[in-house]
Amino acid sequence: MPKHIAIIGAGPIGLEAALAAQSQGYQTTIYERGEIADAMRQWGHVRMFSPFSMNASEEGVALLQKADVKTPAPEAILTGAEFIEQYLAPLGKELGVKTHTTVKSIAREGDGKRDHIGEPERSDTRFRLLIEDRNGESHATADIIFDCSGTFLNPNPLGDGGVPALGEGQLRDSIRYGIRDTADLSPLADRRTLVIGGGHTASTIIVALGKLKEAHPKTHIEWITKRPSDIPCARIADDPLPERDALSEAANDLVVTGKVHFHSGKTVYALHQIDGSIKATLRDADGSFSETQTDHLISATGYRPDPSLARELHVQTCWATEGTYKLAASLLGETGGDCLAVAGFGAETLVHPEPGYFALGMKSYGRTPDFLIRTGREQIVSLLTYLKREA
Ligand SMILES: Cc1cc2nc3c(=O)[nH]c(=O)nc-3n(C[C@H](O)[C@H](O)[C@H](O)COP(=O)(O)OP(=O)(O)OC[C@H]3O[C@@H](n4cnc5c(N)ncnc54)[C@H](O)[C@@H]3O)c2cc1C
User: Is the dihedral of CA 182, 44, 264, 318 positive or negative?
Assistant: First the structure.
């Protein structure tokens, strides 16, 4: 009887994991809380910086070509929406995905958190998943879990130290979190917008706002980062991903030419709503405070995993990144901001004390931002080799 793998999330990594596992004879069930690639759909309007050949497996392309689906050229730089339409959605259709089906929690059948701690008997029982779909709640079972649920649904709060700024909770509905709320920037035309955050997501938003300002010159853009720096985006020398480098350059140019007002070394201390606008109190590295008034606030301060899904299992995550512990230890040894330079680590770094539970993809990185789809595909190959060896 082949082992049954429950795959949580039909993002790029969940789908590739299912394809690879099926080709090795495993039974798989893919659970997706929304539509196929639901997280990526939320930034479908953004162009990716890695070419199609880095984001898709040869096996996936071959499967689609067999099904008469025309796949993109290897060098194509697609938007998120194009990648879904031309690759992920048809792939999901071939593999079979239970869409609009949320996995609410995972446990061991008959074994509680405190049972068989560190003992081989822990793997004698199957996993039991609590599922919710349009028909209500039900249970499912599996021998192995691939948790590919990502982090995109949990944006970090705005405040200093990773906790919400004072007043952020009350203003939550007025704040745009991450890239997902930036498809339509027209309401921001000729208004004041404050962007918080220093990564590629923030740069993408700033460049989009710069375009809006070209058509609506009264648009006022302020950009705040925590890291003290003269320029917002540190460029990677000889960046092998030209699209990524062009993004950093365009964002920096907007600052240099004065179209975007940039302040570094500041964090958001408090937010207040005043007469339809937002007053942000900012804290400097030296402990002093300043204030700025804005009509719109966009938070691009990264994402964090939701640990509640596997809370009943023996999951070991890093206290600093909330990523898989051994992987995080290897990743913390890496330096620089270039995700292409990050080595793929072996399957041993994906192992948790809970036998048969593995976080793959963005979730395995926790809060570490440098994850690439290509890295996730490498994880899948090494994990399936490991499982074969251990069987
Ligand atoms: C703007 C932007 C641009 C990017 N560009 C690139 C790029 O060019 N190249 C690159 O390699 N990477 C890029 N990335 C990173 C890329 O998004 C991630 O590498 C990739 O999406 C991670 O895939 P994943 O499958 O691990 O997670 P996700 O894509 O986040 O997929 C997780 C899936 O799990 C589902 N899910 C979550 N919880 C549950 C649950 N409890 N039950 C059921 N389903 C659940 C979600 O709905 C989602 O569909 C970019 C990211 C952003 C934000």
Answer: positive
Distance CA 100, CA 140 (A): 15
CA of 13 relative to ligand 1 center, distance in Å: 8
Over 60: is that where the pLDDT of 332 sits?
A: yes
Could you identify the residue written with the tokens 């999330």? 9
With the most atoms of ligand 1 within 8 angstroms of its CB, the residue from 149, 205, 342 to mutate is 149
Closest alpha carbon to 265 in 222, 318, 208, 227: 227
Using a 10 angstrom Cβ sphere, with 0-12 exposed, 13-18 middle and 19 or more buried, the burial of residue 248 is buried
Domains and CATH numbers, the chain: 4-153+303-390 (3.50.50.60), 160-299 (3.50.50.60)
Place of tokens 């590629």: 200
Q: Which atom of ligand 1 approaches the CA of 363 most closely?
A: 26
Q: Are 110 and 122 in contact (CB under 8 A)?
A: no
In this structure, the number of other CB atoms found within 10 A of the CB of residue 257 comes to 9
For residue 336, pLDDT beyond 80: no
User: In the structure, which protein residues have their CB atom closer than 6 angstroms to any atom of ligand 1?
Assistant: 8-14, 31-34, 37-40, 43, 46, 48-50, 55, 102-103, 148-150, 152-153, 179, 201, 204, 309, 361-362, 371-374, 376
Q: How high is the pLDDT of residue 239?
A: 81
What is d(CA 128, CA 109) in angstroms, rounded to the nearest whole number?
5
Q: What is the pLDDT of residues 252-311, one digit of tens each?
A: 999 999 999 999 999 999 999 998 899 999 999 899 999 999 999 999 999 999 999 999
